[in-house]
Design goal:
Length: about 100
């Protein structure tokens, strides 16, 4: 991960974090969905990926027990969290429900 995680999730722009692992099959299925979502919400929501094996302290702090785990932060607060593969449509719905950045 590049940058300070706390600084990133405390920005005004909502942040969707994809906690994943290289060895995780479902994470590999989630990856292109996350990439497409990031392109669609570019500038309105920051989308970052956190490898739990390389960032164990962050994963432990947020009690990530399974991957993929997706967490939506709004001004530093967790407003949504879900484990398992999510579709782009589901994620857009979650972002719309918990933020006002997508219309």
């Amino acid at each position: 991960m590049k940058g300070d995680f706390n600084k990133i999730v405390n920005e005004e722009v909502p942040v969707l974090v994809d906690f994943f692992a290289e060895w995780c099959g479902p994470c590999k299925a989630q990856s292109p969905i996350i990439k497409a979502l990031a392109q669609e919400v570019n500038g309105k929501v920051r989308v970052i990926k956190i490898d739990i094996d390389k960032n164990q302290a962050v994963a432990q702090r947020y009690n990530v027990r399974g991957v993929p785990t997706l967490v939506l932060f709004k001004e530093g607060q967790i407003v949504w969290r879900q484990s398992g593969v999510q579709s782009k449509e589901q994620l857009i719905g979650v972002i719309k429900q918990h933020t006002s950045v997508l219309s």
